[in-house]
Amino acid sequence: MSGILDQTLHYFNKAADIMGLSDHIREMLASPYKSIVVQLPIEMDDGEIKVFTGYRVQHNKKRGPMKGGLRFHPSVDLNHCKSLSSLMTWKTALIDIPFGGAKGGINCDPKELSESELERITRKFTNAIASDIGPLKDIPAPDVNTNAQVMAWIMDEYSKSAGYAPGVVTGKPLDLHGSQGREAATGRGVVFICESLLEDWEQPVEGTKVVIQGFGNVGHWAAKILYDKDAKIIAVSDVSGGVYCEDGLDIPALYDFVGEGCLLKNYPDYDKISNAELLALKCDILIPAAMGRAIHKENVNSLQCRAIVEAANSPITPEADDICFEKGITVIPDILANAGGVTVSYFEWTQNIQQFNWGEEEINTRLKLKMRKGYQTVTKVAKKHNIDMRTAAFIISIGRVGKATVLTGI
Ligand code: NAD
Predict the structure, then answer these.
(1) DSSP 3-state assignment of 56?
(2) Which of 291, 295, 313, 335 should be mutated for ligand 1, with most atoms under 8 A from CB?
(3) Which residues are registered as beta bridge partners of 332?
(4) Prediction pTM value
(5) Which residues in the chain land under pLDDT 50?
(6) 48: CATH
(7) What CA–CA distance (Å, rounded) separates 192 from 378?
(8) Which of 40, 181, 305, 386 has a Cα at 20 to 30 A from 349?
């Protein structure tokens, strides 16, 4: 299995086989509704003209406006967007928010662009896809290398022709109708899932040994919230490697260090470990929160965790996923575990279109209800059919999108 597109299709087909899905519904749900590729010629700061390519793949809109991130990265291509857009369809259906799935981005390296070049590219891209996005059509959000500022430019550019429309994007700055709690939402959602799992194990969060790969937005927030609940975070890592302490790390101190632009391998205290060693540590819960395909058939047999909570998208290859099931390692799939971000994006959109605001406590309470309900629904189906949680999650999502497809007609 070569890549992320094959991976999503593999899980989709596995669930579709169990469900006995008809061929025409299967074909409709497996492929995207619309793929948009646009040419973006930009005048660079030095006067040179460069041509970039922008993508927006709209996977499914049967349950609501399509929703998904925009990624600015040299690896962005149509296949990547297709796969990630379908993951969004299954994620929004599973967590039961009224959206479909989409994903997009621009093939560029933001590290090599000035702020004004980045703004020009973003505005040009927004104009190129303006007739396909909108609060009731398709609502982009931040993803790899895009942030609240990029969302502010998109909102402004779109609003020039459509009228003031904060609901066209989520993940906006708070001063431009962003939502309280959005930044921490994915990590917080991961923690709600860990708590549900521990309740099933009848084990307190306090003292639970956790290992986290990736110390960026998602990994750091998950670490911080678990630390505040007295879990023992024994190892964390970034792209440079990790730090380890069997008695538990001082997460706020590590975050301050990383916040100054430092790499974890240069932290003055604690034992240093490689990312490979980190994955093999004995712990209760392993949280991969970095990149896709981190756990594969070559390293899966070294794992010593009881459960994996997939904070990153597609961090386990299908071969490794099967081995985890055989080894008795519980895997909470990405479409459930990291759905906190899109859930609070939905809350942001809800506030925007009704022009009101919720406080952070209300957001977090509503997020908790959604994540717990998602967990309970998936565990119920997994137990009933004696299947892994990922297949159960896909069965629930495909069932919901399939029903909406049948009800609205072909
Ligand atoms: P980020 O860029 O803020 O952080 C990524 C972290 O992973 C950094 O600490 C980085 O150093 C580390 N990393 C990168 N390459 C690595 C490697 N080869 N080995 C070990 N560590 C490595 O990204 P993020 O927003 O925290 O997203 C992390 C993952 O979660 C991604 O897979 C993303 O698609 C997924 N995700 C994010 C959100 C969100 O709201 N941010 C929502 C859903 C899913």
Answers:
(1) strand
(2) 291
(3) 309
(4) 0.95
(5) 2
(6) 3.40.50.10860
(7) 14
(8) 40
